[in-house]
Write a structure and sequence with these properties.
Helix content: 40-55%
CATH class: Alpha Beta
Strand content: 5-15%
CATH architecture: 3-Layer(aba) Sandwich
Number of strands: 6
Shape: globular
Number of helices: 7
Structural class: alpha/beta
Number of domains: 1
Largest sheet: 6 strands, mixed
Length: 156
Amino acid sequence: MRRARPVVVIDTSVFLQDGMSKTRAGAASQLLAILPAIAHVVMCDEIRDEIIEKFADLVGWTEPQVLATYGPVFDAAVWVSPVDEQVWHLAVVNDDTGDTMLVRTAEAVYLQAFDLLDKDQQRFVVSENTNHLRPGTNYAGFLFVTAHGLLTELER
């Protein structure tokens, strides 16, 4: 029996780790290179806009540079609108209002992209921000992992 493709929400921190790498050989780079072919990547405008903003602020990239570099990920993604923010979202991300968009996007999968879902399917929120999205935390059926952690999970 073939395993269902995992559903993955990716944090800006993964893109930044890749973009700021000199060798682009680390876990974030490896993951972004293969993910569109092996998983259902779920994105929202808020995540994309934050990626563009952070790259401009931290690396000096223009929006066209970001879109050209990560176009394969964006083009393959399933786009949803995050659910409205609720008080419990802040608790899940240790009171970081900037990260609630990730859990709100994960929740939106159940409402707007439910056709992707399979009962035995793996679901992940991938972030390098381990202070606010602690690896091993499970929220709404999504496991928080780092890029390295997801690569490890995918090998199983």
